[in-house]
Structure formats: structure tokens, C-alpha cells
Write a structure and sequence with these properties.
The protein is about 40% helix and about 5% strand. It is built from five helices and two strands; from the N terminus they run E-E-H-H-H-H-H.
Length: about 120
Amino acid sequence: MSEQAAKGIDEKYCSECGAIIKAKAEICPKCGVRQFAPPATINLGPVAANGKSRIAAALFAFFLGGFGAHKFYLGQIGLGILYLVFFWTFIPAIVAFIEFILLLTMSDETFNQKYGHA
């Protein structure tokens, strides 16, 4: 019978040969193959049930709010089109900046109740 070694918390499997190696190892000591770095992720905080993030919506409102990007992101297509029609007046940009502040100060629970529908 061959015994299978258990992988520890600070260990991982080699991407090439499957040997158990240290989690921080850059090269497998058994086969010599360079290990891949874990993919970088950006955490935008908690997300609603439909996958929408309050911080992402706030960033859309700040950078592209004059065009209604945050409205399209939140599923409010009609308001997004209204923002697009009147973007040249800069009124949607002013309103979007106010919505940016509101989204930043809004609690996650309130965001989920208002925009978390599937």
C-alpha cells in the first residue's frame, strides 16, 4: 500500500508534476518547473445578490456618470439613456457626482435593498 502525503496549510501542488511543495516556492524542487503566481484580484467589497458592487457603481458614477454608465451598470436602462441624451448640458454630470457621494456613504444593506434585485 502506498501512503498519500497530506498537503499542509502552507503547501501547494506543483503545477507540472503534482508534488507537494511550499506555497511560496517559485520553482518546484522535484521537477524544476517555475510555478505560476496566483492571479491578482481586486476586491471591490461585498456584492449584491445580482453581482453588483456598491464601490464599482460609485466609481462608474464618478468617472463616467455624465454619460449614465452607473445607471446602465445598476440596471436602470431608461435613466441611463436619459443621461446620454442630456450629457452635453453637464446636468447629468452634476447629478452623477451627487449620486457618487450617496453611493459611497450608503450602507451595504441599503444598497442591496435598493439595487440587489436579480
